[in-house]
Amino acid sequence: MIRLFVIEDHLMVILSSFRFLFRPQRDGITISGSAESIDDVILKASPLDFDIFILDLHIPNHQPIDNVKNLKQHFPDKPIIIYTGEKSAIWKSRMFHEGVSAYITKDSTREELKLAIQKVAQGERFNVFIQEISKKNYNPDDSTIDNPKFTTLQRSILSYLANGSTHKEISDKIGVSRSMIEKILKSMRESFKVKNNLELIKLLSKAGSV
Question: How much is the pTM?
Answer without folding.
Answer: 0.63
